[in-house]
Amino acid sequence: MTTSMNMNTPTPWVQICALNDIPPLGSRVLERPAGNVAIFRTATDSVFALLDHCPHKGGPLSQGIVHGESVTCPLHAWNIDLASGQARAPDEGCARRFAAKVENGQVFVSLS
């Protein structure tokens, strides 16, 4: 999956790891002072990146269960859409999303 927030501005990509370093239906955490980023891999090898902070009570999304293109927060079972960061109804809220892509078997994320 390749996404860009603004097609007119170049996206500064950061190489994170090899795709195979993230288990299918799993995640990897990128620790950073501005807040950890959870990088998810689906069963179809799509990658998504969200702030590792559930919009409900701040639970670590990286420890949740990945299913389809969603993750279920381990604290209170909120379902978060991986592509948008939006909580699925009836819950409301949004986790910050980061652009992510896979090239030549390597995972890249834009942290801007």
TrEMBL record:
Pfam families registered for this protein in UniProt: Rieske (PF00355)
Signal peptide: none
Keywords: 2Fe-2S, Iron, Iron-sulfur, Metal-binding, Nitrate assimilation, Oxidoreductase
Record CDD domains: Rieske_NirD_small_Bacillus (cd03530)
Membrane-traversing stretches: none
GO molecular function terms listed in the Swiss-Prot or TrEMBL record: 2 iron, 2 sulfur cluster binding; metal ion binding; nitrite reductase (NADH) activity
Protein name as annotated: Nitrite reductase (NADH) small subunit
Organism placement in taxonomy: Bacteria, Pseudomonadati, Pseudomonadota, Betaproteobacteria, Neisseriales
